[in-house]
């Protein structure tokens, strides 16, 4: 006869396996998704900071968005440390980041199971509710949006800390108190709302009959004090003293974001059609309030509920959710459902108490529990589709929240990247109608106009962005580029210099300042900026090319040839470099090599009239007027309006 104890042990070991298998079945296809272009690309694609292991200490000396002045307000080094490890492993491909997000979700779901078992809920009941957590649509954003990993990482540390505290409450073992202190400190370095663990552990300490005196929990107190003190110390060293929020600002933000609280509760209790992003004005308040009243009625009618546990569950939800309503930062006004990830655990406890019978059992037919999980999985599948790529995400965001400036700007950028300039312009104008002074709306609209040749209009919107944010280095750089294209070189130089003052390590600005100075005939100064651009960015092919062109003008053909060759090594499909190198090689008597470069230039750009003009000029200088005439006629046929081999920007 089989040993019942052995069967129980086998079942316990199989629980995490079932969770992990279900998680991969539900979310595995999401591993092929791309970036969503909201914070993920800012952190991972548009900068190399996280791909350089030498910056590991710098992570602990900067705010959450790596701004040198702490302007982002939040100090959250552990999520960024995780992103660095992912960046070192996966580079700029989204696969590794998405796999990590999924693994964190699976681990958090397992810890939900362990926490519920530690709270003495029946194991089968705890397993079912951990599956609810795994499959709940409100958790989808934490899995499918790469920066959402901070929510699941916080949940892992917070749940591990709570489990250790609950174990210490029962056993009094010092190692449990030490584990709690460690995980609490890690949670603090993940997100500042982790401080809520202290009052929640105290509340749990007093639950039930025979709660131990608070003085017996002194080791937990020591862990909280130590963890909080270490976090405060590191934060004070990383962020300026002014990086704080006044109580009045937090209170105003709280009341402004109250609709988000109702909407968030609705997303958990009736998770249908969850918004990927919404400002309070667009939040589903009535739907949320209906869900709250329904849940309250179910709890009230439950005969087996324990009021203390209901209070604990509600407190868990509020203490982890409300801090997100207090931030006055503009991004915080756009509610995103990944903020529900850890608070969801508290509402699971409320649901457990609402379903609890007086004999501490949760009896439900398999068809009902299976049906609930199937519905949740179907809703989650539909939710994940909004994170497939940039367009899917921003189109949904703009649809969910038409009054969100951020959503309309993001949708405009996605449309512009897709070549839908008219639709992008409409989206930007919606954003500007909502807030004419929004920096991102003005800047990105200007970039759209600029890229479509409407530079006079673009200049005006760049200027609007800079009036609001004069310290915006990229704004000065792009305005300089637009002014240079309009022939306003003096103004362009001034904006390039301002961009470099604000952001000294800016190779593109160094290079374009060199281009503008070259056009003004200031070759020695231009050379300094080209060389500085190459020092900052050694693989900058355009800077190599333009430095070579400058050296040709000074008669230093030897070094010029080396720069052209290096530019072509870095960027083989560079027709201008082939043409200019071909001309110099002709002058040096290396005709076969020169003609090879001309041929390659015309293979890359068949309509490149300037290549024929340069080739013809070189042949005429070499005493071959008939060959020159062939190329001059071809250039005339193509038209003098074709792109020339001038200074590459």
What does this entry look like structurally?
The structure is a single chain. The chain has 649 residues and is an all-alpha fold. Among the domains are: 29-240 and 265-387, no CATH class; 540-649, Serine Threonine Protein Phosphatase 5, Tetratricopeptide repeat (Alpha Horseshoe), CATH 1.25.40. It has 31 helices and no strands. It has helices spanning 4-27, 40-44, 77-90, 95-118, 123-135, 140-144, 149-171, 174-188, 197-205, 218-238, 247-256, 258-269, 285-301, 307-321, 343-355, 366-384, 390-400, 405-417, 421-434, 439-451, 455-468, 473-485, 489-502, 507-519, 523-536, 541-553, 557-570, 575-587, 591-604, 609-621, 625-638. The protein starts with a helix and ends in an 11-residue tail after the last helix. Residues 641-649 have low confidence and may be disordered.
What topology does this entry show?
Layout: H1 4-27, H2 40-44, H3 77-90, H4 95-118, H5 123-135, H6 140-144, H7 149-171, H8 174-188, H9 197-205, H10 218-238, H11 247-256, H12 258-269, H13 285-301, H14 307-321, H15 343-355, H16 366-384, H17 390-400, H18 405-417, H19 421-434, H20 439-451, H21 455-468, H22 473-485, H23 489-502, H24 507-519, H25 523-536, H26 541-553, H27 557-570, H28 575-587, H29 591-604, H30 609-621, H31 625-638
Helix pairs in contact: 1-4, 1-5, 3-4, 4-5, 4-7, 5-15, 5-16, 7-8, 7-9, 8-10, 12-13, 13-15, 14-15, 17-18, 18-19, 18-20, 19-20, 20-21, 21-22, 22-23, 23-24, 24-25, 25-26, 26-27, 27-28, 28-29, 28-30, 30-31
Quick take:
Among the domains are: 29-240 and 265-387, no CATH class; 540-649, Serine Threonine Protein Phosphatase 5, Tetratricopeptide repeat (Alpha Horseshoe), CATH 1.25.40.10.
């Amino acid at each position: 006869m089989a040993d019942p104890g052995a069967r129980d042990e086998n079942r316990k070991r199989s629980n995490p396996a079932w969770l992990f298998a279900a998680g991969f079945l539900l979310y595995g296809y999401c591993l092929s998704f791309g970036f969503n272009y909201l914070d993920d690309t800012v952190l991972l694609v548009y900068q190399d900071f996280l791909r350089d292991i030498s910056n590991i200490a710098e992570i602990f000396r900067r705010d959450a968005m790596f701004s040198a002045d702490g302007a982002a307000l939040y100090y959250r080094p552990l999520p960024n440390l995780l992103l660095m490890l992912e960046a070192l492993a996966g580079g700029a491909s989204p696969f590794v980041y998405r796999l990590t997000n999924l693994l964190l979700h699976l681990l958090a779901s397992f810890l939900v199971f362990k926490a519920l078992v530690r709270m003495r809920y029946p194991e089968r009941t705890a397993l079912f509710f951990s599956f609810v957590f795994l499959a709940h649509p409100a958790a989808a954003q934490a899995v499918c949006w790469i920066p959402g990993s901070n929510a699941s990482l916080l949940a892992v540390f917070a749940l591990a800390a709570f489990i250790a505290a609950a174990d210490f409450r029962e056993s009094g073992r010092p190692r449990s108190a030490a584990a709690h202190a460690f995980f609490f400190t890690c949670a603090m370095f993940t997100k500042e709302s982790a401080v809520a663990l202290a009052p929640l552990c105290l509340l749990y300490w007093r639950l039930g009959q025979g709660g131990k005196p608070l003085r017996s929990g002194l080791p937990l107190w020591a862990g909280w004090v130590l963890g909080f003190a270490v976090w405060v110390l590191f934060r004070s060293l990383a962020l300026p003293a002014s990086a704080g929020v006044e109580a009045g600002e937090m209170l105003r933000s709280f009341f402004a974001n109250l609709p988000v609280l109702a909407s968030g509760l609705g997303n958990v209790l009736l998770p249908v059609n969850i918004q990927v992003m919404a400002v309070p004005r667009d939040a589903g308040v009535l739907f949320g309030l209906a869900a709250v009243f329904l849940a309250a009625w179910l709890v009230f009618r439950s005969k087996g509920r324990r009021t203390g546990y209901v209070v604990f569950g509600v407190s868990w939800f509020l203490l982890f959710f409300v801090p997100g309503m207090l931030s006055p930062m503009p991004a915080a006004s756009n509610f995103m459902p990944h903020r529900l990830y850890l608070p969801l655990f508290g509402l699971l406890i409320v649901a457990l108490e609402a379903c609890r019978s007086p004999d501490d059992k949760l009896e439900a037919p398999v068809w009902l529990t299976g049906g609930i999980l199937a519905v949740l999985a179907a809703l989650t599948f539909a939710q994940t589709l909004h994170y497939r790529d940039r367009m899917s995400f921003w189109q949904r965001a703009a649809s969910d929240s038409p009054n969100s400036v951020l959503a309309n700007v993001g949708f405009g950028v996605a449309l512009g990247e897709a070549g839908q300039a008219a639709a992008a312009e409409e989206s930007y104008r919606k954003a500007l109608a909502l807030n004419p002074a929004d920096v991102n709306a003005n800047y990105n609209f200007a970039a759209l106009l600029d890229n479509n040749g409407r530079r006079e209009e673009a200049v005006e919107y760049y200027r609007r962005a800079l009036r609001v944010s004069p310290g915006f280095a990229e704004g000065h750089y792009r305005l300089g580029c637009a002014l240079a294209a309009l022939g306003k070189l003096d103004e362009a130089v001034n904006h390039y210099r301002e961009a470099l003052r604000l952001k000294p390590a800016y190779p593109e600005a160094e290079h374009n300042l060199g281009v503008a100075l070259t056009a003004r005939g200031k070759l020695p100064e231009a050379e300094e900026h080209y060389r500085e651009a190459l020092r900052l960015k050694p693989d900058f092919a355009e800077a190599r090319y333009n430095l070579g062109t400058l050296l040709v003008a000074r008669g230093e053909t030897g070094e010029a040839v080396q720069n052209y060759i290096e530019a072509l090594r870095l960027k083989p499909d560079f027709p201008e470099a082939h043409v200019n190198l071909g001309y110099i090689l002709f002058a040096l008597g290396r005709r076969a090599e020169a003609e090879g470069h001309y041929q390659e230039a015309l293979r890359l750009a068949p309509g490149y009239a300037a290549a024929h003009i340069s080739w013809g000029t070189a042949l005429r200088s070499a005493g071959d007027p008939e060959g020159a005439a062939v190329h001059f006629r071809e250039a005339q046929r193509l038209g003098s309006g074709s792109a020339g081999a001038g200074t590459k920007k």
